[in-house]
Amino acid sequence: MTPVRWRDGTLEILDQRRLPAEEMWLACTTWQEVAGAIRTLAVRGAPAIGIAAAYGMALAKGGERDDAAAGLRAARPTAVNLSWAVERALASPDPLREATAIAAEEAARCDAIAAAGASLIPSGARAMTICHTGALATGGAGTALGVLGEAHARGRLAEVVACETRPLLQGARLTMWECMRRGIPARLIVDGAAGQAMRRGEVDLVIAGADRIAANGDTANKVGTYGLAVLARHHGLPFYIAAPSSTVDRATGDGGAIPIEERDPDEVLRIGAPAGARASNPAFDVTPAELISAWVTERGVHRSAADLVR
Ligand code: MRU
After folding, report:
1. Which domain holds residue 87?
2. Same domain, 301 and 152
3. Residues with a CB atom less than 6 Å from ligand 1
4. Scanning 177, 183, 236, 278, which has its CA 20 to 30 A from the CA of 253?
5. How much is the average pLDDT of 7-36?
6. What is the pLDDT of residue 52?
7. DSSP code string of the chain
8. In the predicted structure, residue 62 carries a pLDDT above the cut 90
9. How far is the centre of ligand 1, averaged over its atoms, from the C-alpha of 286 (Å)?
């Protein structure tokens, strides 16, 4: 399972909007097509959009590189991996080699995150998660889902409790699909059932990914993550964030400065709201550092933001 592959001068992107019903690959030969695929979530997940954007830079012709960098950076504002990867490709004399290196590094980071994070999962744990943080979001084993996959491989995980993740259903469509393919026991709940599941004692911990972690540890991730963190604190459950160092943004002081992507209200309305209804659609929220028990990166488990950004 890989979100992108490079073949003979073309970036092929597995169209995640169509999964799990259909496995369709988009063939991108221009940076504009890559930016479009990122903007419309054909490829999504912070590390994966960074990787795709770096390959997008490799598709830019000589004179286009600055425009390509600006266009790719603007495709989605919240995940810092995107601008981080674009900057690396822009600074490189060989963007394709840089993109290939970024993809390999992100996969290696996932392996290290999985190994470090699995130590946090107690035997028999039932772990709640949100959105999708597996192979398709990272190009490797995944971040939060990578940790859970490793815990499962070690015989420690009883169940993943996957929040469906409105409005685009990354949890229902992608986390459930990936768990089933990897043989990880998983149960899907609607987002609104998270509190009741914790109250009933059906959850031992929460673990999520991240799109940007500010210098003070405040963490932006899929909208709904903050609510899970508040619920976890109320129910005395640990709340973990798993992310590679490419998601840590030392230049952003705290969560208030993280740009939050506002998406088309139609994504919220189209399930059956009456014509003319209004909606807002923030794609991410910010969980304050004080609600986070630990961050897991490729460098290990960090119990404080100071240790995380060291
Ligand atoms: O809008 P998406 O699907 O790109 O949102 C993705 C998330 O919120 C993930 O949790 C995050 O990018 C980490 S992916 C390893």
Report:
1. 4-110
2. yes
3. 44-47, 79, 131, 133, 137-138, 143, 170, 209-211, 221-222, 283
4. 236
5. 97
6. 98
7. --SEEEETTEEEEE-GGGTTT---EEEE-SHHHHHHHHHTTSS-SHHHHHHHHHHHHHHS-GGGHHHHHHHHHTT-SS-HHHHHHHHHHHH-S-HHHHHHHHHHHHHHHHHHHHHHHHTTS-TTEEEEE-S--SHHHHSSS-SHHHHHHHHHHTT-EEEEEEE--TTTTHIIIIIHHHHHHHT--EEEE-GGGHHHHHHTT--SEEEE--SEEETTS-EEEETTHHHHHHHHHHTT--EEEE--GGGEETTS-SGGGS--PBPPTHHHHTTTPPTT-----B-EEEE-GGG-SEEEETTEEESSHHHHH-
8. no
9. 13
Domains of the chain: total: 2
Ligand 1 centroid to residue 63 C-alpha, Å: 32
Report, as residue numbers or ranges, the catalytic residues: 211
**Residue 102 shares a structural domain with residue 137:** no
What's the rounded mean pLDDT across residues 126-148? 98
Tens digit of each residue's pLDDT (9 = 90 or more) over 241-274: 999 999 999 999 999 999 999 999 999 999 999 9
pLDDT band at residue 10 using 50, 70 and 90 as cut-offs: very high
Asked if 145 and 235 sit in the same domain, the reply is yes
CA of 136 to the centre of ligand 1 (A): 10
- In this prediction the pTM is 0.97
CATH at 8: 1.20.120.420
